[in-house]
Design brief:
Strand order of the largest sheet: 9-8-7-10-11
Shape: globular
Distance between the termini: 17 Å
Number of strands: 19
Strand content: 15-25%
Structural class: alpha/beta
Low-confidence stretches: 1-40, 355-365
Radius of gyration: 23 Å
Helix content: 25-40%
Oligomer: single chain
């Protein structure tokens, strides 16, 4: 992730308050209107056209905070995946011949559509993810910025070069051409922003792209796609250049990454999924670009400003309820300041309180866990029951192996799949809780 994106994450999720962006065209503040949500049609977007899935299966999408059903998308099939890839393959030659400047204008048009619907999209994203409203708005806004950023590259990326030769009578020309068909596999934690990271670079360089959304959080990506296809903006990419489809990784995802029609796969997700994709792609020597999970450490030296260190660790750890792959999951502290640092960190964490849906003001110090639109909320519950079970399972196994719970360690009520911010000590370097990512 770029440093700008991380700074905006900090504004939204780490300052313990909703964000306030500095861009002049961001004038509306996000609100949460759970009764006004609109989900995308129960179809697949294949080549920019909404078509019925070849299968009858569907995936229910819940609001993790309330447990309410807020949408339903097609489960998707191998045939759906193949249809999307075929549309991309057929459209790619003409798109590659389109002037780069025109491709850049297409990305700007995609950004305009997102920006025109930014509040609706943020509300939907916050609801399907249990994401703090300010952070959800930042994701939507920065997604539009990301399309604009890559639109700028249309006029400056190098399409070739002349290479010096040892032979004075020889000239070597290197001409760069699009790869062809790109597949983007998106995660559930930042589905909209990552969708932009799959689509924008591919499209601006003359590739076509098929995106598979996460089955956990597909609604906002599908809604954006619907808005693109409904728009009368003539600058938008033509039919066939992009598809956004839904389904399970084991079926739709597997079909996409193993197809001979694909020239490159870009996936953001877990290490295990990355390994599986590499195996599938190897059959056809398909290029693979992987952004996998991590176990980001913080190191606190003996001369560190402990208050600043605690602030940084806390801000990083609670962003999107700890479900961010590059945020701090473990802390290595110099022995001479260990007890002082631990005392300060636990004191910061132990301010945790549960906020009822109707709370209107902040009356405590510490981490406030509540619903996405609660005033001053710092984080919400986890994204799903499966994620809750994973977190609890890793914690239980850590405690059984000898870890000491300094604070937290228990579920929270009235905040969906809530789990109290937790600090563990007395863990070994080889323990699962130290080695394996909790996020994915």
């Amino acid at each position: 992730m770029s440093s700008l994106w991380l700074r905006k994450l900090a504004l939204a999720g780490a300052t313990l308050a909703p964000t306030s962006l500095a861009f002049s065209h961001y004038t509306q503040k996000p609100t949460q209107k759970s009764t006004a949500l609109r989900a995308a049609p129960l179809k697949q977007c294949v080549g920019g056209t909404w078509v019925a899935s070849s299968g009858a299966g569907t995936i229910d999408v819940e609001d993790p905070t309330t447990g309410a059903l807020i949408g339903r998308v097609p489960e998707g099939t191998e045939a759906d995946a193949h249809a999307a890839l075929l549309a991309a393959k057929q459209a790619q030659p003409a798109w590659a011949k389109t002037a780069p400047a025109a491709r850049g204008e297409a990305l700007k048009a995609m950004a305009r559509v997102i920006r025109a619907n930014r509040v609706e999209l943020a509300e939907l994203l916050a609801s399907e993810q249990a994401k703090v409203a300010g952070l959800a708005q930042v994701e939507i806004d920065f997604t539009a910025e990301y399309f604009d950023y890559y639109a700028g590259w249309a006029r400056i990326y190098e399409a070739g070069e002349i290479i010096s030769s040892d032979d004075p009578n020889e000239h070597i020309y290197l001409h760069k051409i699009p790869l062809g068909v790109s597949v983007g596999i998106c995660p559930w934690n930042f589905p909209v922003f990552v969708m932009a990271r799959k689509l924008a670079p591919a499209l601006v360089t003359g590739n076509t792209c098929v995106v598979k959304t996460s089955e956990v959080t597909p609604l906002t990506c599908a809604r954006i796609t619907e808005l693109w296809t409904e728009s009368d903006d003539a600058a938008l990419p033509p039919k066939g250049t992009y598809s956004v489809i839904t389904g399970l990784g084991s079926t739709v995802g597997a079909a996409l990454v193993s197809s001979p029609l694909v020239d490159i796969v870009s996936m953001t997700g877990s290490v295990a999924t990355g390994k599986s994709i590499m195996k599938s792609a190897a059959e056809h020597m398909t290029k693979v670009s992987l952004e996998l999970g991590g176990k980001a450490p913080a190191i606190v030296c003996a001369d560190a400003d402990l208050d600043l260190a605690v602030k940084g660790v806390l801000a990083s750890r609670i962003c999107f309820s700890g479900q961010v792959c590059n945020c701090c999951e473990r802390v290595y502290v110099h022995e001479s300041v260990k007890e002082a640092f631990l005392q300060k960190l636990v004191a910061a964490m132990e301010g945790t309180s549960q906020c009822p849906m109707t709370c209107s003001r902040r009356i405590h110090i510490g981490v406030k866990v509540g619903a996405p639109a609660d005033d001053g909320v710092d984080c919400c519950g986890l994204v799903s029951s499966a994620q809750f079970d994973k977190v609890k399972g890793m914690l239980d196994r850590a405690v059984a192996a000898g870890a000491k719970v300094e604070c937290g360690g228990t579920p929270l009520t009235n905040v969906g799949y809530g789990f109290a911010p937790t600090v563990l000590t007395n863990v070994k370097q080889s323990d699962e809780i130290v080695q394996e990512e909790v996020c994915f």
